[in-house]
Write a structure and sequence with these properties.
With 107 residues, this protein is α+β, with helices and mostly antiparallel strands. It contains five helices and four strands, in the order E-H-H-H-H-E-E-E-H. The chain has one domain: 2-Layer Sandwich (YaeB-like fold), CATH 3.30.2310.
Amino acid sequence: MNCNVVFTDTAKSDLGDIAVNLAELSKDKNLAIRFVRELQEKTKILEQFPESGSIPRDRVLKSSGYRFLVYKDYLLFYLYEKEANTAYVMAIFNGKRDYMRVMKKFL
């Protein structure tokens, strides 16, 4: 049975911010939309392989059950709840940022 993939409100907001920033930087709205769709497509792997994401090195994130996927310069952090067979995409952001600072709000 396929795992459900759910984008939290924060992750949806992150996608919107990424689209706006890319559209402003590139002056190409279609490029921004296409990139956000690619980010969303990256999570499709979780439907079949919900535990396929990398485990963070940080012990707090690791012990909290977080995993992440990488797409280009972006990190997609998620939690997998086995009992509910659901992967919750918690946050999506540029990997050049300090991910612990971003993820602290979830701990």
